[in-house]
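Field: COMPLEX_INPUT
Field: COMPONENT_COUNT = two
Field: RESIDUE_TOTAL = 280
Field: MODE = joint
Values follow.
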Amino acid sequence: MHVILFAVFAVFCLAGAINLLVQTHPINSALSLIVVMTSLAVLYLLLGAEFLAAAQVIVYSGAVMVLFTFVIMLLNAGREERTLGSRVARVIGLPAVVAILAVVATVILHTQGLGGAAMSQGFTTTEELSTVLFHELLLPFEVTSVLILIAILGAVALARVEGSSADDAERTGQ
Amino acid sequence: MDLLNQSVPLSWFLLLSAALFALGIVGFLLKRNIITVFLSIELMLNAVNLSFVTFAHQWHAVKGQIFVFFVMMVAAAEAAVGLAIIIAIFRARGTLAIDRIDLMKR
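Field: COMPLEX_OUTPUT
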């Protein structure tokens, strides 16, 4: 059953990723990335990471991808132009990708002592996770909240229209 | 019956992660739309997260999962800032094609 579950969702993952590359319209690419992320959530569940499976669906396929689709629709992004792109990327980049993939796959296949995954082996509960997170790693957790606050401020500052309403009103008033 | 109870080898998860990462690089190199390039980066982040979770399962280590949690938080912040930059670029240049955003090449 686990093997079948893995096979189905691994195929979903790969099909979504390939579809992301093949589609020319950004909205189709974004929707196929949602398929990849949701299938990954199922695979996390198979690996016993219940909290991460929930967070993957909520944070990634929920929040982040909504942001992406929102921006794609806001900018009215059309079909992408098919150009061959940079020659360096094609001549050096693609063979390098194949080489890296081959090396990594060989190493993985020759690694001894890797175990197996089955749901019956039990989950890492959210309780265990939060015990470590809030006892040993409290400072990094709090620093992350500062990072997100700064990111929000940066996003607002970047996306704001230069010299928008308030500034204009001031200038015209003088 | 044997197939029903069999556990999935962890190397399969690692191979899937490597394949997703490679597809992410290919998208990053070949796609010509700035939003799709950004989507490919997200795909690579997800592939790395999968191998983190796999190794956390292998070593029964909770910290691997916490690392993924932090990667998710940073990726959310990165997506917000990155998309704001894309909006700013679109306002300034009126295009999303990365071939036309070439001011620094000239």
